[in-house]
Specification:
2 copies of one chain form a homodimer. With 198 residues, the first copy, chain A, is an alpha/beta fold. The first copy, chain A, contains 8 helices and 6 strands, in the order αααββαβαβαβαβα. Chain A has 2 domains: 49 residues, Orthogonal Bundle (Helicase, Ruva Protein, domain 3), CATH 1.10.8.420; 134 residues, Dna Topoisomerase Vi A Subunit, Chain: A, domain 2 (3-Layer(aba) Sandwich), CATH 3.40.1360. Chain A has a 4-stranded parallel β-sheet with strand order 4-3-5-6. Chains A and B meet through α1, α2, α3, β2 and α5 of A and α1, α2, α3, β2 and α5 of B.
């Protein structure tokens, strides 16, 4: 016998497909939902319906939005001369939480990957090059993950942009609050190479 | 600025209330859902609606069911003389997966807890005592968690059942595949006290 009535099993199976949830935590989550039917189960289902109905990709930058052009791209208070290139919407959100960047974004939707057969045209790279030309961009900040694929993608984009555009990337080094003892060798050597006058 | 359009934020907030998901993993899950709108987001919302509409507690044992009396309580192939008492539906499911017990269940819905002011009448204990009288139960198996509250509850139920009913509990000892080095002292001493001829 399986875990319970068919409806519940179907829900558990779907929940287990979410990143971060396995079969066991999906079961726990579903039991919790059944117990909190009016407080959580129904509101969650409604919220999903409304996101499914309204959420879409910004045509300009790839951010998640409820309109054709997202709030950040439409905002007049954001600098137009700088584009911060990120892999994913989650990275855009992380940048926004730090509230340090006041320009606009471009979400690639992944990284180049020979293994997964992801080429420039599978990402939003052509759109980035067009935006750089059309929006009079002076600086492109490559905020890609410090992985092999992330850095390959960064080099490719820098090549395509050519020497007229200033291309920068996030500094690498010891994270704030980081303890040397717990850092990997790569981070320590990157921080050492990029050391600054104290 | 927050994480995105209001609908998305509302969904993230609700998802973060699920056990096992924090704000960060809720954000990841929601981004995944938005990307898989027709494959995951809409089916998940529908599955939640259908569970909300059909799932209910079995009036007899407290299991989750789509009818007034659950499949296990209605099944004629399950022994009627034995009731396995569990804290939660998740524990019932775990027992069913092991497929070792062929009797019926009784879900308490928690444990006695002085700190949280949970008394016998907040649990399904009166119903258990009535079932034991009415269903001609010979053996009550207490499959409660090996926590202080779980064991307090087990002792209370055993007291209430009185000496006419055989009351048993799950054996304690070294889990299958368990390595002594990684076990806590309590488990080792319980296994030592309950040692058997080899």
């Amino acid at each position: 016998m399986a875990d319970g009535p068919e409806d519940i099993e179907a829900l558990i199976e779907l929940m287990a497909k979410l990143p971060g949830l396995g079969p066991r935590s999906a079961r726990r989550a579903v039991l919790h939902l059944v117990k909190k039917r009016s407080l959580l189960l129904l509101p969650l289902s409604d919220a999903m319906q409304s996101v499914a109905a309204t959420a879409r990709e910004c045509l300009n930058c790839g951010n998640i939005s409820t309109s054709e052009i997202c709030d950040i791209c439409r905002s007049e208070s954001r600098a137009t001369g700088e584009i911060c290139v990120v892999e994913d919407v989650a990275d855009l959100w992380a940048m926004e939480r730090s509230a340090v960047f006041k320009g606009r974004y471009h979400v690639l939707g992944g990284t180049l990957s020979a293994l997964d057969a992801v080429g420039p045209d599978n990402l939003r790279i052509p759109q980035l090059l067009r935006r750089v030309r059309e929006e009079g961009v002076r600086e492109v900040i490559l905020a890609l993950n410090a992985t092999v694929d992330g850095q390959t993608t960064a080099h490719y984009i820098a090549d395509q942009l050519g020497p007229e555009i200033e291309v920068t990337s996030l500094a690498q080094g010891v994270p704030i609050g980081g303890e040397l003892d717990y850092l990997d060798d790569g981070t320590i050597s990157a921080a050492m190479r990029a050391r600054k006058a104290f």
